[in-house]
Amino acid sequence: DSTKLREIHDFLLSLAHRAGEIITKALPDSSGTGSKKNSADLVTEYDRAVENMISSSLKIKYPDYLFHGEETYSPENPLTDAPTFIVDPIDGTINFVHGFPYSCVSLGFAVNKEPVVGIVYNPFTKTLYSGIQGQGSFLNGDTRLPVKGANPEPLSGLTNALIAIEWGSERGGPNWDTKVRTFAHLGQTRENGGAMVRSMRSTGSAALNMCAVAEGTLDLYWEGGCWEWDVCAAWVILKEAGGIVVDGSPNEWEARLDGRKYLAIRGAPEAGQKELVEQFWSCIQ
Ligand code: IPD
Question: Out of 8, 23, 90, 132, which one is annotated catalytic?
Fold first, then answer.
């Protein structure tokens, strides 16, 4: 119920602040950094320490709920319908290692694979995004999302859009060519057959990209290859801000939390979210 979700939200918020202290005090260096599948997929001792702090605190406070975290995930334990905390201890690990101040802790709670509580906290800029299903989402606890006037233009199609895309850590495989061709198509002028969006950004954090869409400062975010812990918390924040998440592949209106392909559109119901989805899908090459 809504009181229970509020209680979970408050507890996750306290964990986000504790995580933020560990993250901002950390001094990541190459000796404590390892790569998982390639040199674009980093993990540090701090990712593990933060996840450990969060999972052990959650196990004491909510022993009946499952825990699903980036650093302890194994394919033998896929996401289920049970109430589950879905956590990325440091989203934007590459930024963290390089001192580029766009990393966050992403704390989500999902029931029936539907995100219902989300906290995304960037401790470097002290920016907090939070949301509870049915209770709205907020910037820094008190400013309702989307932020009024953050982007005064109505959502009016790809040509006027500022969008987020990511190279991600999958740098090969069957989806690589699609990604590269689509990025080129989005950027190219219309005279040359492209869609020419206004511009493209890569913050290096899936959660912060999706929260910027919730805020209204970005119009759209597309990525294939990231995971449920990258998007769970931001997903409820975006939905509560009137935004939508659909599948990153054309014609799949129902996005799955563990589907690993996401297309997020900002809240602007008066001005054609569905049209923008269709325009974007038609650009996937
Ligand atoms: C990564 C970031 C990045 C996205 C990758 C993710 P991590 O998460 O969210 O923006 O492009 O797909 O894996 O590894 O920094 O937690």
Answer: 90
Q: Which residues line ligand 1 (CB under 6 A)?
A: 70, 88, 91-93, 166, 168-169, 204-206, 223, 225-226, 230
CA–CA separation, 247 and 262 (whole Å): 5
Task: Say how many Å lie between the CA of residue 191 and the centre of ligand 1.
Answer: 34
Q: List, in order of start, the domains of the chain with CATH numbers.
A: 2-144 (3.30.540.10), 158-283 (3.40.190.80)
ipTM of the complex in this document: 0.97
Instruction: With 0.90 as the threshold, say if the pTM is over it.
Output: yes
* Under 8 Å between Cβ of 78 and 258: yes
The pLDDT profile of the chain, 285 residues, written as one tens digit per residue, is 899 999 999 999 999 999 999 999 998 875 667 778 788 777 889 999 999 999 999 999 999 999 999 999 999 999 999 999 999 999 999 999 999 999 999 999 999 999 999 999 999 999 999 999 999 999 999 999 999 888 888 888 999 999 999 999 989 988 899 999 999 999 999 999 999 999 999 999 999 999 999 999 999 999 999 999 999 999 999 999 999 999 999 999 999 999 999 999 999 766 689 999 999 999 999
| Residues tagged in the binding site annotation for Mg(2+) | 70, 88, 90-91, 230
**Cβ atoms 246, 263 nearer than 8 A:** yes
Would you call 23 a catalytic residue per the annotation?
A: no
Q: Determine how many CB atoms are found less than 10 A away from the CB of residue 6.
A: 13
Is the four-CA dihedral 274, 118, 222, 20 of positive or negative sign? positive
